[in-house]
């Protein structure tokens, strides 16, 4: 989730590019993103909702501009999204569409909006769950079948003329704002906007304004100003913007979670020991055969050539994927062989299955999974460490369709891929992300090359006891150290030109770097 605009939050193939939808997309997808910090505690449970701001005001009063200025003023506050009321117009009948094209349909009445859906989507986002936002076409005057996937916002700004009208919406806001603007200025802005961006005629805009917009403002919009915590002028509002952004930053600081160091286990009684029964921790270790030990010897050797390293990583990844496949449920299946003989066999008893790679160190496991499941969909998460706190930051989410829709995610099995589990911070955030999407905990199979027995595995198991981990080896230690000009794979944080890191020992070094560079 990098950059100010994030079109990858929804399906590119589902996005249509007509001018009215592009206008709506610009209102809905603006982000100021520096990575989502943890929103959960050491038990893996969400403990801080997203901070939600509701902005109401008359049509063309400057609500979207105020929202964008807040985003700009927030600076380093992570992952801010603007959600527009315009997405939630109801699905219209053919008769209503005909009236809309003739400027005879009242879009400014509260009944024109699907308030229950608006509140449900906002409630999901506030609770740190994903949501699929409807898409409305102003050119067609119709809600489309496609949706826009959205997840991971720590601050949500909702804007619309009826943003403060419905009690169910108001109950979700942490801060309520009303934008006050001169009626003549609002009319001038509306004419300019609708003619340029929505293909309307001046006559049609004026007729609709006098028939619907002005009465709706007087009867429904202006009265909601009494619910506002702050009234902001529609222009020359820099002081109000600064006050709002200062308040939001203070709230974000109070909600910050810091517990990564605690995940590096210091009590020997809580550590996974090399001679433990690993399966008591839901850790399944490959049989330590001479062949497997030979592979690890080659991979641990710093003098191994990159070509050999890639070859043996791919081979080991295949072993791990095959072992992970054993953890899926299977059902009986009878087939006919080429000799026309009936054979009673097995097949996976799953509706959906996919892989999710924690990039980039999870990338070396992808080829092994694809060798075992040739047509498997693989998504990705980018989790890196905050430069100051060392806490994990969720920077990028690109998940398969079977996870993005909760009705599908509940029946989806996920192979979660990462090179190693050291402190477990990246694994923790990745698992929490899948759970937020509706994936069942016992449907997550974590596939990794190495686990540090005195690292965060104990915290990980306590928080997510039903998640199973398939690994090739359990290493002895996790050491905190400092390396200059060091680029870790999610297991450290920067200070100047160096980085404090937690190194798995004896380990395999930086697996992603050795594989890709």
From TrEMBL:
Biased composition (Basic and acidic residues): 1-17
Catalysed reactions listed for this entry: uridine + ATP = UMP + ADP + H(+); cytidine + ATP = CMP + ADP + H(+)
Pathway(s) where this gene product acts: Pyrimidine metabolism; CTP biosynthesis via salvage pathway; CTP from cytidine: step 1/3; Pyrimidine metabolism; UMP biosynthesis via salvage pathway; UMP from uridine: step 1/1
Domain Phosphoribulokinase/uridine kinase: 52-234
Phosphoribosyltransferase domain span: 287-480
Sorted UniProt keywords: ATP-binding, Glycosyltransferase, Kinase, Nucleotide-binding, Transferase
SUPFAM superfamilies according to UniProt: P-loop containing nucleoside triphosphate hydrolases, PRTase-like
Gene Ontology molecular function, alphabetical: ATP binding; glycosyltransferase activity; uridine kinase activity
Region span, Disordered: 1-21
Domain of life of the native organism: Eukaryota
Protein name from the UniProt record: Uridine kinase
Organism annotation: Boletus edulis BED1
């Amino acid at each position: 989730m990098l950059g100010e605009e994030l079109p990858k939050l929804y399906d590119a193939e589902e996005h249509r590019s007509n001018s009215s939808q592009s206008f709506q997309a610009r209102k809905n997808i603006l982000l100021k993103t520096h990575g989502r910090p943890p929103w959960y505690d050491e038990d893996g449970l969400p403990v801080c909702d997203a901070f939600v701001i509701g902005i109401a005001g008359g049509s063309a009063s400057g609500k979207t501009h105020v929202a964008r200025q807040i985003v700009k003023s927030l600076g380093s506050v992570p992952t801010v999204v603007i959600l527009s009321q315009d997405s939630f117009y109801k699905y219209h009948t053919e008769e209503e569409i005909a009236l809309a094209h003739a400027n005879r349909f009242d879009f400014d009445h509260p009944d024109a909006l699907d308030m229950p859906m608006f509140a449900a989507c906002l409630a999901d986002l506030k609770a740190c769950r994903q949501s699929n936002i409807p898409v409305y076409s102003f050119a067609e005057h119709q809600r489309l079948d496609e949706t826009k996937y959205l997840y991971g916002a720590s601050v949500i700004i909702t804007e619309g003329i009826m943003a403060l009208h419905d009690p169910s919406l108001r109950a979700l806001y942490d801060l309520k704002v009303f934008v006050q603007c001169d009626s003549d200025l609002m009319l001038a802005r509306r004419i300019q906007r609708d003619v340029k961006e929505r293909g309307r005629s001046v006559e049609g805009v004026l007729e609709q304004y006098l028939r619907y917009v002005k009465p709706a403002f007087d009867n429904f919009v202006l009265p909601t100003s009494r619910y506002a915590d702050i009234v902001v002028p529609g222009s020359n509002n820099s002081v109000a913007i600064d006050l709002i952004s200062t308040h939001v930053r203070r709230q974000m600081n109070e909600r910050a979670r810091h517990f990564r160091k605690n995940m590096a286990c210091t009590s020997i009684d809580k550590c996974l020991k090399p001679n433990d029964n690993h399966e008591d921790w839901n850790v399944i270790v490959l049989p330590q055969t001479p062949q497997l030990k030979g592979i690890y010897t080659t991979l641990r050797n710093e003098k191994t050539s990159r070509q050999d390293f890639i070859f043996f990583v791919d081979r080991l990844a295949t072993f791990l994927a095959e072992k992970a496949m054993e953890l899926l449920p299977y059902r009986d299946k009878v087939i006919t062989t080429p000799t026309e003989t009936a054979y009673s066999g097995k097949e996976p008893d799953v509706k959906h299955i996919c892989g999710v790679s924690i990039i980039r160190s999870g990338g070396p496991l992808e080829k092994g999974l694809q060798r075992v499941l040739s047509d498997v969909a693989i998504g990705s998460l980018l989790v890196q460490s905050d430069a100051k706190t060392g806490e994990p930051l969720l920077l990028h989410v690109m998940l398969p369709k079977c996870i993005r829709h909760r009705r599908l995610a509940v029946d989806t099995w996920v192979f979660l891929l990462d090179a190693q589990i050291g402190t477990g911070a990246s694994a923790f955030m990745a698992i929490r992300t899948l759970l937020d999407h509706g994936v069942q905990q016992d449907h997550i199979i974590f596939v990794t090359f190495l686990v540090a027995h005195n690292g965060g595995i104990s915290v990980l198991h306590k928080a997510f006891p039903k998640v199973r981990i398939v690994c090739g080896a359990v290493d002895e230690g996790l050491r905190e150290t400092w390396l200059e000009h060091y680029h870790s794979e999610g297991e450290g944080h920067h200070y100047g030109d160096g980085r404090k890191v937690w190194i798995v020992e004896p380990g395999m070094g930086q697996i992603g770097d050795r594989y890709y560079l």
